[in-house]
Every structure is written in C-alpha cells, then in structure tokens.
Amino acid sequence: MTGDSTRDRRLDRLRARLSEQVALKDVPVTLPRAGRTYSILTPTDHDRLLDEAETDPEQNLPYWAEIWPSGIALGDVALARAAALAGHTVLELGSGLGITAAAALEAGAELLAADYSAVSLALCRHNALRNAGREPRTMEINWRAPTDELLAHADAIRGYPRILAADVLYETRDIAPLLALTERLLAPDGVLWLAEPGREAAQRFLAAATALGWGRESEAHDGPWTEGTNVRVGVHFLRRPGS
Ligand SMILES: C[S@@+](CC[C@H](N)C(=O)[O-])C[C@H]1O[C@@H](n2cnc3c(N)ncnc32)[C@H](O)[C@@H]1O
C-alpha cells in the first residue's frame, strides 16, 4: 500500500468520526504571504456548538470552530521562519482548526498541539495531515489548570524552544495563567510566538510581559483574510528577561 493511500484512509476515518459529532464543510484558506492555500475542514453548525457550550463548567465558547486571521498570520510566519522551527519540539497553545499547526508541520516542526476542545484537536489532526502530510501529537488541556502530563513533557525536553499561540488572549481571566504557563514551559532561551488582533487582553498580556523584563520584536500582518475582515494582526516574538 502506498503512503498516499494510507494517508487517505486515515483522513477518511478521521472525517467519518468527526461527522458523527459535528456538521462539516471544506473551506479554502490562503496564507497571504506564502500564497499557500490549505483546505480546512470546518464545523458549520455554530448555534448547536454554542448551545452545548452552555453546560461547560468553564463557560468556554466554541471559538475553536472558526477561522481566525491570527491563526493564518502565524501560519505565514511559520513558513517564512521555517528554519526556526525545523527539527524542534514546538508547542502550540489553543490550536483550533489547525491552520497554524499545518504550517508549523510543513516547516518541519515536531508539534504538540494543545487545546481545551477534543473535537478541535481531532480537526487539527485531520487538517494538518491533509495539508502538511503529517499529524501533530495532541493534548487536551486547560491552560488555567495545567496537567502534570503537560508539565512533565516540557520538563523532559528542558522546555520548549518555541511556543506558538494565535488569538488566545480575549478574556481577562487568561492573562495571568498564560503568562505563568509560558514562564513554566518555555526553554531558557526559547521564544513565544504570539499572534493577536489587537484585543485588550492581549495588550495587557504584552504590557505585563514587558513589565517583567521580557524582550519583544513585532511585525504587522494585514491579510487579506479568508473571512474578509480588515483587522491588523500583530505577531510578537517574546524572550525571557536577559536571554
Ligand atoms: C480564538 S480561538 C483561536 C484558534 C486558533 N489559534 C486560530 O487562531 O485559528 C482560541 C482557541 O483557544 C482555545 N482555548 C480557549 N480557552 C482555553 C483554555 N482555557 N485552555 C486551552 N485552550 C483554550 C479554544 O478552544 C480555541 O481553539
């Protein structure tokens, strides 16, 4: 059996399992700078997902089910800076539908994709395999209460040299936990690649990191984005104090 047919069978299995849980459609998503178009399997029934979120003890809304400019911009950055990812163990926090994940895998990263939603992690595996030809390792996490498994994995490799995160700061309650988790999981000379579309929580996170002495370089991405918004995405590269 060829590698392609094994991959196709795995994609069919993943898609069939996902279709039992959510209604789906394929959406083309273009990374504007790379000019690369991914086909992203995406949920369609957002109202039902919102209803289901009402019973979630953490009241997390199903933002994983949407395509976000920050995830596209960070995918572009992953391809543009492939040498900084290739061969490295990379963590993505809040991986959603897996657009950034697909690009990071295409760049050659050994990726652990982590998200609160198990369905989003299955979609991430599907979308990465379909577009990058490889699946990430995945882990269901809540960054407000990190598991021993997540911490032990980071300790085993002495911290992640790169942590990727796209549009994960939209709630005030996440600023302190995400800063603490980054400090705990990043290697001493590691870099957090954070993409954000100007939300207040992200600005407060960046200000808090600066106050603690973290260094930062930034670049701006203006799309065009798949869903037609004009938002400017900031992509920031954050390093520990003194590194
Ligand atoms: C706005 S979406 C962005 C998704 C993706 N990074 C992108 O840009 O397309 C935020 C993501 O963070 C995840 N998330 C939110 N709260 C979380 C938490 N407490 N722990 C882990 N993941 C969380 C969501 O499930 C979702 O996938």
From TrEMBL:
InterPro entries: Methyltransf_16, SAM-dependent_MTases_sf
One Pfam family it belongs to: Methyltransf_16
Name the UniProt record assigns to this protein: SAM-dependent methyltransferase
Originating organism: uncultured Thermomicrobiales bacterium
